[in-house]
Design brief:
The protein is of the alpha/beta class and 420 residues long. It has 13 helices and 12 strands. It has a single domain, classed as 3-Layer(aba) Sandwich (Alkaline Phosphatase, subunit A), CATH 3.40.720. A hairpin with a 5-residue loop joins strand 3 and strand 4.
């Protein structure tokens, strides 16, 4: 297989320089890049993928429907006075782990969409995540992701950090023609990062020599066209010294990968580097066994999610007017509990949208009764709102992406109105 030189220069430059082990010419080129010009604030969409399929009926319980308690004798929770659930006053109640969000709900900043999901019936995590991130349910092989398409359709000037994922690898939703960056630690992506632990000096030196040799075989133009975005991104971080910035007062981030990702996204937003879309992910939502109620695997993941997002929102300060955060999960869980104290792969779930312009304090979408005759295949919460109705509304109302069939190919449904 022939290695594409353009791809190698770009990927190799990121890998070596981000570890502080890059050849000298890479540092020279990056540091010689022009200083980033001050940018006007841009609107930012932060997407948070809850991988594993969150139980939407435990996150936001329909307390006015007695069928849930009958279907879940061990897992159902009470919203009565003194009960565990946090009553929202609209026929639904939040799991107690989401207590940090109650003020956002009361202030009208947090909206919930229930019985939302993909029209495709798959219960495969891999397929469902692929369909949601590509924005083409039921269609395999879509080459790009919906977030990447949204960035392109927004039509704004490119910046080194226009699209960022705080993940080890680029997520499916950011595949595509628009440049995007995946990084877990901004400090390590900058020019002054540490060497990778466990990599022996000889191996690094050999890699540096190979990259130097490849560089000598290429023209100046190829280097600039293939690697300029990488160098500019690294130079931007070097000059901003983000590693020395601290969260705003009152932003109490927990110690978790999700919290760390959101903390760094807040840094980029407050630095006005031209960020438009950001991606983070949360795990632990595949609760087949010992799901628990107030404690257990669900509560642990929900508590981390709620505390991380609440800290992020506090940290943003005056930038909150420009930011919307939206969660998503590939599908929901069964209405009935299983024999191991958990729930199995289902269909519909719920998602959250947080922002100052959101029509919050409401549960949007049509929520059905939970009697067996109303359930999808007699066992699951049905999908009454296509996830694309939500995603397209957020892209239009917040990012300014006009109705365009290219954002969600093959989707002709209407947008769900979520903004005041």
């Amino acid at each position: 297989m022939t290695l594409d030189r353009r791809l190698f220069l770009k990927a190799g430059g990121i890998a070596l320089v981000s570890l502080g082990a890059g050849p000298d010419f890479l540092r020279r080129v990056a540091r010689a890049a022009p200083a980033p010009a001050p940018m006007a604030r841009r609107r930012v969409l932060v997407t948070l993928f809850q991988r594993g399929a969150m139980d939407g009926l435990m996150a936001v319980a329909p307390v006015s429907d007695p069928e849930l308690a009958r279907s879940r004798p061990r897992l159902a929770m009470s919203a009565a006075r003194g009960g565990e659930l946090l009553d929202l006053g609209v026929g639904f109640a939040l799991h107690p782990a989401f207590e940090p969000w109650t003020e956002l709900w009361r202030d009208g900043r947090l909206a919930i969409v229930h019985a939302v999901g993909s029209p495709d019936p798959t219960r495969s995590h891999f397929d469902a995540q692929d369909y949601m991130e590509s924005g083409t349910p039921g269609r395999k092989g879509t080459p790009d992701g919906w977030l990447n398409r949204a960035v392109g359709l927004a039509g704004h000037d490119a910046t080194p950090f226009r699209a960022v994922a705080m993940t080890p690898a680029l997520p499916r939703s950011l595949y595509g023609d628009e440049p995007a960056v995946a990084v877990t630690r901004l400090e390590d992506f900058a020019l002054g990062g540490r060497r990778l632990r466990g990599v022996r000096g000889g191996a690094v030196a050999e890699a540096e020599q190979d990259l130097e040799a490849l560089y000598r075989q290429t023209s100046e133009g190829l280097l600039h066209s293939a690697g300029s975005d990488t160098f500019e991104a690294m130079a931007t971080l070097e000059r901003l010294s983000l590693g020395r910035s601290r969260p705003a007062a009152g932003a109490d981030y927990p110690r978790s990968p999700l919290a760390e990702g959101l903390r760094q996204i807040a840094q980029l937003i407050k630095a006005d580097v031209g960020l438009e879309v950001a991606f983070v992910e949360s795990g632990g939502w595949d609760t087949h066994v010992a799901q628990g109620t107030g404690q257990g695997s669900f509560a642990r993941s929900a508590r981390d999610l709620a505390r991380s997002v609440a800290a992020f929102w506090t940290d943003l300060g005056s930038h909150r007017d420009e930011v919307v955060l939206m969660t998503m999960t590939e599908f929901g869980r069964t209405v009935a509990e299983n024999g191991t104290g958990g729930t199995d792969h289902g269909h519909g779930s719920c998602l959250f949208v947080l922002g100052n312009g959101v029509d919050g304090g409401k549960v949007h979408g049509r929520f059905p009764k939970l009697g067996k005759s109303e359930l999808y295949q007699g066992r699951d919460l049905p999908v009454t709102t296509d996830f694309r109705a939500v995603f397209s509304e957020v892209a239009a109302a917040h990012l300014g992406v006009a109705a365009d069939h290219r954002l969600f190919p093959g989707y002709a449904g209407e947008r769900l109105r979520l903004f005041a």
